Amino acid sequence: MKSLIGFLSSLVLIASAISPASSSSVANKLIECIANNNINPSSFQTIFNPESSLFSLLLQSRVQNLRYINSTTKPLLILTPSDDTQIQSALLCSREQGIEIRARCGGHDYAGISYLSDKPYIVIDLFNLNEVQVDVKEETAWVQSGAQLGELYYAIARQSTHLAFPAGLCPTVGVGGHFGGGGFGTLVRKYGLAADNVIDAYLMDARGQRFAHDVHEDLFVRILLLNVGGGDDKKKKTVQANFQALFLGTKDRVIPLMNKSFPELGLKAENCTIWKMMLEEDVPIVILEPLGGKMNKIPESYTPFPHRKGHLYNIQYLVKWDKNGKEEEERHLEWMKRLYDYMEPHVSKSPRAAYLNYRDLDIGMNSAGGKTSFSEASVWGQRYFRDNFKRLTEVKGMFDPENFFRNEQSIPLLHK
Ligand SMILES: *[C@@H]1O[C@H](CO)[C@@H](O)[C@H](O)[C@H]1NC(C)=O
Ligand SMILES: *[C@@H]1O[C@H](CO)[C@@H](O)[C@H](O)[C@H]1NC(C)=O
Ligand SMILES: *[C@@H]1O[C@H](CO)[C@@H](O)[C@H](O)[C@H]1NC(C)=O
């Protein structure tokens, strides 16, 4: 089975009644510029400004990390494009007005950087661009970057009982961010990452120019540990290990395999003081996603995602809490930091690896002033991309020399 394909497009706006008097002048200039640029202004459906009754609802609808649900930094506008030309004018006009953009697909970025910024910014929410075209004969598909993984899987399943696309488990994760950061799920050991199965893409640069097949060759774009409590006995706590797995075969083959492999899941019981730490928290979750298989055969430089041969697991650390408030938040984050430190001796070193799609701003950020040196950025860049980081900065220089597409951990320009 050849895998299907994905692609990243880009996106933009919706226009409805906007009251110019109440929007900020920057937002107004932007809207004016978009109207002037757009071939057919009536093709815009809606541009949401903060006065719009739908603004908060729309903004919050894809805030997946509730720590940011009441964030005081809000975009000047939310644009929900339904075609390329709208994206083009949004990019051109934001650049002209010196406004940052945040492109949002599913809103799952851990640090919320698809919808937050401390600079004046707009959110380009791609949810209208969610088309999936499956070509069963060719065993390929075109998917727009605003589609969610569940929409992609559904579109494939409707047309084929045997084709699949290797990507993540969570159905509301957006295709754009997921593929851009690598993207793995239950099929990773057999077929590699989502990004490994992308064979073509349309991209848009800061001038709104669309690139397709002729893109530069250098431009490339789970064990679940839960503290489940003690049932009726409220004081008792129990740690449960859930194995979320997918085996491509029949049950008479998987049982002996599990019997053989299970004891080597990487956690040796006598060494597992991690259980004690897990019991300190109310809802801690540690997910170990197995690598290996096909991942060992794909070279480190094939995509930006470098963690290939020799890596056993991709580990995801999560903690959830119910009560709102600063103290509560700090308590849980402090536990998370201790857990992260506790794991240090057991995980990859020099540098300790990180997965872009499990965003972690604590490992370092671009400087607020906009100029970050290669060595400063390498502190986090090497963790996400290892030796591919240098190459990414070179590609960045070629395709975005003004550093228009930027955020806390965007690839920086190399400053001589
Ligand atoms: C966000 O604000 C709402 C309304 O004021 C409040 O009920 C809720 O607790 C807040 N959520 C967080 C995570 O602070
Ligand atoms: C697991 O492997 C052991 C040792 O080879 C064997 O004795 C046992 O019957 C196996 N159990 C299952 C459920 O296959
Ligand atoms: C695991 O536990 C055993 C027995 O206590 C000990 O000898 C060994 O050093 C531990 N291994 C690690 C990696 O902590």
Instruction: Determine the CATH superfamily of the domain at 20-125.
Output: Uridine Diphospho-n-acetylenolpyruvylglucosamine Reductase, domain 2
What is the name of the CATH topology of the domain at 20-125? Uridine Diphospho-n-acetylenolpyruvylglucosamine Reductase, domain 2
Distance between the termini: 47 Å
Percentage of residues in strands: 5-15%
Bound molecules: 2-acetamido-2-deoxy-beta-D-glucopyranose
Total count of helical runs of at least 4 residues: 11
User: Biggest β-sheet: count, sense, barrel?
Assistant: 4 strands, mixed
The proportion of residues forming helix, as a percent range, comes to 25-40%
* CATH architectural type of the domain at 20-125: 2-Layer Sandwich
Structural class: alpha+beta
